[in-house]
Amino acid sequence: MSQIDALPSPSSQYGHLNSVLICLSAAMLGASWLLGLVSVAPNRIVAGTSYGLVAAIGWPGALLVSLLFIAMGGLAIKPSRLHSYAQLCIVTLTLLLMPFGLMVAGHWLIDPTLPQARLGIGAAYWVVLFLLLLCLVEVRLRLGLSRLWTTLLLSSVGGAWLLCAALWLENLALVQEFQARDQQFYRAMLQHVVLVGIAVSVSIVVGLVLAMLMRRYQRLQRIAFAWLNFLQTIPSLALFGLLLAPLAWLAANVPVLAQLGVSGIGATPALMALIAYSLLPMVRNTYIALDEVDPETLDAAKAMGMRPYQRFWQVRFPLALPILLEGVRITAVQAIGLTAVAALIGAGGLGTFIFQGLGQAAMDMVLLGALPILVLALIVDASLGALADALRPGGHK
Amino acid sequence: MTGDRNRGESSITVGPRWLWPIGWALLLLIGVLGIPALEPVFRWLEPDARQVIYARADFASLLARHVFVVGVAAVVTISVGVLAGIAVTRQWGRDFLPLAGQLASLGQTFPPVAVLALAVPVLGFGTLPIIVALMLYGLLPIVRNTLAGLQDVDASLKQAAFAMGMTPWQVLTRVELPLATPVILAGIRTSVTINIATAAIGATVGASNLGDPIIAGIVNGNMAYVLQGALLIALLALTVDSLFDALQQQLRTRLSAS
């Protein structure tokens, strides 16, 4: 990742045409005209009928969308800083217009006499959304904007979407799914965050202790890394399964443990597996972070008369902190994904919606679980990444 | 393919590095064939269940389907990912390099389960959506490592190769790719390891593979099924991972020897 960030700034490449944005614009144009924009279903189980661009938002809407994409591609023929800013505006505008397209489509296509009728988001919407985000990344790199700006931009767009969803998009299948089980959703979200939080905090503490012990005892280092690598290799579903069986047996045969809350199904095996998985990235990064501190800096601290614990807490630890946080970031993002799998063994969390939805063939419910997990992972990734950047000696990269 | 070649060459003296994959593969084989014989053990674990050995499909065919799905996805991702990595590092594809790099590192943030879940509404239930989801997800580590490997090749080495009169194609195949292979191989290892795990979760969306006994066991509360599936998946993952480990070591010794 770092070698990609360290590329020569693309802003020096102005002059010849930007084929990336032209390709992306053409792809968005193609996707919006050729794929289904929305689908309408009479209830939550029946598969919906798909509607194209013109049928969903009419000729004026279709023309507006096409014009935006064509303008985006046209501006890329002669790239300049001004054009890049214009493209940034077009991307933002299109992102903000997306919920309005759904509103218009819902108004036209949904029969108001059918209370169960719902609007599904079609393939074109997802593809265009993905391509728009790629455009945003490309424009950001061209302009050399910091990551913070795009994060702010995307969070305000996300806020606008949530507002639209809450106020006007009651036809949307995703919104209906949410309204039918909003309490359940908040509880699952909380469970998810708590499980990830416990797993990550335990692994931070254990990781730090283990990494410090490893620095002292070289033998331990080899054994511990071998074991952690071994654990990481075992697929999550298998590790959950391997913990499930013995814990269920223990809970059934040792009543004391059952009273303590140990059971095969539920949060206990999930947490054990989550912590086991979190340890490897945590320990590895902590070890590397503590090990990579410049020995000359430490010698200088020693020469200044600092005691060993002072050298550790006032010199080595603060210098190691950015790489250590990188480990926390990797661990947290990984744990967010793994906790979704933990729903299979009854640990709760957002994965519950994914697997219930798959079981009932209710795709909107699957989305209700998968989308927040994705957003959560992106938020944690961006914020911990920004924190590590800020803590790096010498400020931003 | 390279595995077979390396294997053939080293079969004269089977070094200790090949003992791990062979050992795990043997255990996997014993597991697949021997689990039905272990009925008394599983009966002791689950005394009340009607059946203690998963019988909806035999383990060999479950294993074969698991390997097939991961294998197809791996072949496609390796060819597409390495080609894409090469394309964006050439002069004519350089425009796409920053975007490809960002995308490949961003992709690590997407949880595999979420990718799998999002693939189902678009592609439907069954084996195909799993293969597509595995391909999409497995592509990113390979692209990332191909980029990293090719970019790490010393620029002066490439210049020297050009100065010797090599064509761009020769520089790519004789200088850049051989030097980048260890890093690319590490990316392939990550990709395949993640895909073995994700394919198992695919059992919840209708693909029949080694994840099946686990899901069936959880649904019916039959821990014996869970244990059987979990053991075999773990052994499969360890076999494949140790195979890559041995390959990497082989490559390292060869690179340092030459």
Automatic annotation (TrEMBL), chain A:
Localisation: Cell membrane
Residue ranges crossing the lipid bilayer per the database entry: 20-41, 53-76, 88-110, 116-136, 148-169, 189-213, 225-250, 256-280, 335-355, 367-388
- What's the domain of life for this entry? Bacteria
Q: Mind telling me what this protein is named?
A: ABC transporter permease
Recorded hits in Gene3D superfamilies, A to Z, give: MetI-like
Where's the ABC transmembrane type-1 domain? 189-384
The UniProt keyword set, sorted, is:
Membrane, Transmembrane, Transmembrane helix, Transport
- PANTHER family to which the protein is assigned, alphabetical: GLYCINE BETAINE UPTAKE SYSTEM PERMEASE PROTEIN YEHY, GLYCINE BETAINE/L-PROLINE TRANSPORT SYSTEM PERMEASE PROTEIN PROW
GO cellular component terms, semicolon-separated: plasma membrane
Species for this entry? Vreelandella alkaliphila
Q: Does the keyword Nucleus apply?
A: no
Automatic annotation (TrEMBL), chain B:
In terms of PROSITE patterns, this protein maps to:
ABC_TM1
The main place the protein resides is: membrane
Domain ABC transmembrane type-1, first and last residues per copy = 63-244
* Cited InterPro entries: ABC_transp_perm/SBD, MetI-like, MetI-like_sf
Where is the protein found, in the record's own terms? Answer: Cell membrane
One cellular-component annotation, GO: plasma membrane
Membrane topology according to the record = Multi-pass membrane protein
Q: Name one Pfam family in it.
A: BPD_transp_1
Give any single GO term for biological process. Answer: glycine betaine transport
For this UniProt record, give its keywords in alphabetical order, as a comma-separated list. Answer: Membrane, Transmembrane, Transmembrane helix, Transport
Instruction: Name the protein family.
Output: Belongs to the binding-protein-dependent transport system permease family.
State the name under which the record lists this protein. ABC transporter permease
